[in-house]
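Lab notebook, bench 4. Continuing the backlog of folding jobs that were queued last week. Each job is logged with the same field layout so the records can be merged later without manual cleanup. Today's entry covers Taste receptor type 2, a 269-residue chain. Filled in by technician R.K.

JOB TYPE: sequence-to-structure
TARGET: Taste receptor type 2
LENGTH: 269
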Amino acid sequence: MDWVKRRKLSAVDQLLTVLAISRITLLWSLYILKSTFSMVPNFEVAIPSTRLTNLVWIISNHFNIWLATILSIFYFLKIGNFSNSIFYYLRWRFKKVVLVALLVSLVLLFIDIFVTNIHINIWKDEFKANVSYSYKLKIFLQVSRLLVVTNTMFACVPFVVSMIMFFLLIFSLWKNLKMMKHIAQSSQNASTTAHINALKTVVAFLLLYIIFILSLFAHVWSYDFEEKKYFIFFCLVGMFALPSLHSYILILGNSKLRQISLLVLSLLK
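JOB STATUS: finished
OUTPUT FIELD FOLLOWS
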């Protein structure tokens, strides 16, 4: 618990702390999203909560993927091995890189919220124009699916950045292994281990996020199925897997987080 003694968090500790908060918020927003869909028969309750539900969902999902992407950038800059002036400049200016990434993410977030509000306003006008229940249900599902597609499109930017970091780390690892013949075995083993651990974390995030998006799409489209009870259950499991399992992987891959987790578990006993 060196950060407690120094009363100062390192850059990666700050990043992991904020990421943990975003994961908790994402779990909460997923629960709200599930509750909103369970209100589909009662539009008088579902409609007023839709704007707030989508706002919480967009913000939590947005920062969840962007913070994980910034973590991937951190691994690349701190562990990657490239003899390039731009790479060294970015490594020494990591905080500025994070700041720029956050500013870009905020711009995309505001655009996402703006587009979402336009869709919701159109949806509310459609509801006022027609009082038929079947029509309301049809519009509700159409708009819900449209919002999921819109939010996913905005999430493509950080996802692509994470993919690029993944391939650059693989290339750096390949260079590392190639240089093992000329540099001390012990130092190369340590560097190789760091590369592999970083790759595991990035791969886990990419795979879990793909499962998350597929499960979210399947859940929104599941209302077209007659026998949907068990299908929705598996969709929810897939959606909750990202914030839960990836957090567990981060804990296993970080010695400080492992120590804190063991301390918390010992206090709970």
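OBSERVATION: The longest helix spans residues 133-178.
SIGNED: R.K.
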